[in-house]
Structure formats: C-alpha cells, structure tokens
Recover the amino acids of this structure.
C-alpha cells in the first residue's frame, strides 16, 4: 500500500493506520477518504500491515512490519505524526489505567468522546525520529463502535489542519480541558521539562491551573 500525498509544502503531516493485525478494519477507511488540508501537506499510509500483530511497544515492530513508517518519517520529516489504532472494549480499563506508566512504561491514554482514546506514540520512535517540538499522537478507536469511528474521523479532519504542538494544545484546552492537562503533564514528564520551558502555555494553561 503506497504512501499517498495530499496538498503541498510545509507543514508536513504523516498519518498512518492499519498498523497490525485486524486494526485496519476500523481505521484504514478514515485515511483512505481523507481530503487534503487547507495548507501544507498531508501524507497518509492507510494500511501498514494486516498480516501480523506485533505491538508497537515491541522495538521489532518498527524494524520489521513498520519499516515503511520509519522510511516515510525520514523522508518527509513531518511536524505532525499521527497513528490510528483500534482496541477491544474489554481492554479499555487497562489502556486508561493511571498505573499504565508503571506497568508498561508508557502513560495511560486519555478518554475523549465516544470511547475514543488519545495518547502519544511509543517512546522508541518519539525520541529517535522526532524533534521535541513535533506533535506525535495516537488515536485509539473502539473496535466495532461506529460512533467511536465517526468521532475519530471528525477529530482527525480537524487535527489535519494543525501545524504545531502549540496549536494542538490550544485546540485541546478548548475542547477537552481536563484531558489537555494530562496530555501536557505527560509530555513534560517524558522530556523532563518545567513549566517555564513551555512559554506558550503560560497565558492559557497556567492561568487555568491557578483557578
Ligand atoms: Zn494497534
């Protein structure tokens, strides 16, 4: 499945779906049907692999079946990188459990509307292939839940217009203020940052925090 390029110029965004196993069933069509952003470029890989299920937390994922993602990242150097995954309802509690960081070494997902989950991407590619300023997100759609899929498609359509982490934080603070705080905290913890390292948050998030 080739890489599809929509639009032109920067900012560059790369969205990928169907990363492993049967997840393509709930995710690939969203990227197959997406339209070009108003500014810059959107590159999409609607289907990475449907033969095997290897977790993206397994470092072998990106040197094996996910290799085409790495090739695309190196070629395009995207400012925004998004993975679309799907999960079974019975795993929801595990994925959103605050203890997930201690269990598997990655932060819990935040729950948005319609059982859509939001998280970052695995530390392996976040640190190795992206600068700190890049926006890297994972959306998890609940399997077999049409509302969850529809909600994700709408969110993705909105997020494809964003060009930076700052814009995303603004969007989150407006639309999902509670979840936004967790996303910001996770990001700060991951890079060992302090509040003063994120000046663009001073007027919005920080004043919000003092309330
Ligand atoms: Zn997945």
């Amino acid at each position: 499945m080739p890489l599809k390029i929509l639009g032109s110029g920067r900012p560059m965004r790369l969205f990928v779906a169907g990363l492993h196993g049967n997840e393509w069933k709930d995710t690939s069509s969203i990227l197959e049907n997406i339209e070009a952003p108003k500014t810059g470029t959107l590159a999409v890989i609607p289907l990475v692999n449907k033969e095997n299920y290897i977790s993206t937390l397994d470092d072998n994922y990106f040197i094996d079946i996910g290799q085409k993602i790495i090739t695309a990242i190196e070629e395009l150097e995207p400012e925004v990188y998004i993975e679309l995954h799907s999960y079974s309802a019975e795993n929801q509690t595990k994925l959103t459990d605050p203890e997930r960081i201690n269990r598997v070494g990655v932060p819990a997902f935040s729950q948005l509307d319609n059982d859509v989950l939001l998280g970052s991407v695995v530390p392996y590619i976040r640190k190795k292939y992206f600068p700190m300023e890049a926006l890297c997100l994972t959306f998890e759609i609940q399997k077999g839940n049409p509302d969850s899929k529809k909600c994700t498609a709408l969110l993705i359509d909105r997020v494809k217009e964003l060009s930076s982490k700052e814009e995303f934080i603004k969007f989150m603070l407006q639309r999902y203020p509670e979840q936004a705080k967790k996303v910001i905290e996770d990001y700060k913890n991951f890079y060992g940052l302090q509040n003063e390292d994120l000046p663009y948050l001073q007027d919005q998030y920080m004043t919000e925090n003092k309330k």
Remarks:
- The pocket of zinc ion is lined by residues 19-20, 23, 85 (CB under 6 Å).
- The chain is about 40% helix and 15% strand.
- The radius of gyration is 16 Å.
